[in-house]
Amino acid sequence: MKKRLIYIVASLMAAGVMVSCHKITVEATTELTPDIYPQDSASFITASGPAYVALRGNVAAEYFFQQTYSTDEGIMPARGGNWYDGGQNLEMHYHTWTRDNGYVNGNWYWLSTIIGTVNQELSILGKTQPAGDSKDRNLAELKMVRALAYYFMMDNWGNVPIDTLYGDFVARDKTPRPEVFNFIETEIKAAIPYLSTTVSKATYGRFTQYGAYALLAKMYLNAEYYTGTKKYTECIVACDNIISSNKYSVASRSNYLQAFYPLNGPDAVGSKEEFIFAIPYDPTFTNTLPFRAANYHARYDVPRSMGKVAAGAGYNYFNIPYTPGGPASTLPEFYAYFNDVNDIRNKQWLVGKQFLPDGITPLNITTTKAGYDAIAYKGDSSKFTYQLELTPNIVLRQSTTTFDCGNDEVAWNMGYRNIKFYPDATSASRDQNNDIAIFRYSDILLMKSEAILRGGTPTLGQTALSLANDVRSKRTTSPAWATINLDSIYNERSREFAWEAWHRNDMIRYGKYEGKWGFKTNADEYRRIFPIPTNAFAVNPKLTQNPGYN
């Protein structure tokens, strides 16, 4: 079993603590009060756990879906009726989502819950924990968790209400996005002096100063879009605070893929060098919040014929104890960025004909002719064996209305699959051990490179070109770049952070979110932010809908 933050989470679950939710979503009470809990040093550590538990909620599922399937990076079409899910995946792809979309509602609720949980913990710990460095650090960490939640809300919904008081259920209208930006920036700067500068197993999965600077850098890189004011030099300064610490490095070419393996973490190659702030996952975690709090990537990303299969039907390539759904894939437009044959990042994809682990023997699938292609061989039940081949294009053969490719092998094998979060054969369930990195060191270098290209002041003798080549030298054996421009950085970010839920953020900053890909042609700029969900209005009647939405 893994390793970090478990002492907080396990203690929290044993205590059976209930947490309150942010008022913009739901008003709730709690049994946790300053009169009864916490009372000693161990309890103070336990009491800071709910914020991190809440943060784990939707990161690897619903939040990932919203960030990824609304871009050219990913698509989840239906397959024979499965995965239609009320049209929420269709809406993400076509940019036709409404205030009732499941991801829009679920992620607003999730982020609101994080904020409400932190407000509660700050109120209690602020009154009960004895003054000193430990208290200051606990409170600063909690404020950073809240700052990250507010950042995600600002990035996705623009103007959002700000509330920092536990138990205050006064309805508030939305705060303009530039003011939300200033609030988050102020919170981060105030927290930094009290955060740890230690990078170790003890601080893994918790906010340190470097995680705070990474969030600041991300905000400053996007500040021109969020506020109308350029802050590229400020982005560079935030990056430099991490670079100059000399506590992180870009994982080597041989370790890059391992950084995302099931046993990644503070002691694992790749992740220990690169992960600045990560969210731990473990199938043994117990969840008491109304979110999955699980990493189900293999369930969605692995072709169903490469997991547990019926006897004689195929080969359990990943040795996982279940049949994956395998509905998610990338689109040809995104896969086109992986055009360097010497780049290790190509190996995060399953493409084309598949072979057994020896790399020679074809991975054959046995079915019927109709099971292979229900259109060409309708009703033909004769035996049919073929080599598994993943094809690049998504074709809605069964129904364009219901976003459906069909329910045969041809349909299920459409789309190249990403296995960056490598399937976890040690787990007895569909949940995985793979931790999810929110901020990585390669992102710091590429953000600084981009900020310089956008007009920020170079520092530390580094140039936009040298920074990008620092990353590329650890990813490909191809020659270093001789020149660089913003498009090259965008392409490099697409390769480096594929399947890490940052591509929507990048597309918007680069003005590419209104483009055409797959079946999507909608170019409405107002869809750079999502609608305020229906359920939020039921709780807070002072909210107003975002422009363009009903």
TrEMBL record:
Family assignment from sequence similarity: Belongs to the SusD family.
Keyword RNA-binding: no
Domain SusD-like N-terminal: 90-221
Keywords: Cell outer membrane, Membrane, Signal
Signal peptide limits: 1-23
Residues covered by the RagB/SusD domain: 389-549
InterPro entries given in the database record: SusD-like_N (IPR033985), SusD_RagB_dom (IPR012944), TPR-like_helical_dom_sf (IPR011990)
The protein's name in its UniProt record: RagB/SusD family nutrient uptake outer membrane protein
Predominant location: membrane
Keyword Membrane among UniProt keywords: yes
SUPFAM superfamilies: TPR-like
Source organism, top-level taxon: Bacteria
Lineage of producing organism: Bacteria, Pseudomonadati, Bacteroidota, Chitinophagia, Chitinophagales
Location in the cell: Cell outer membrane
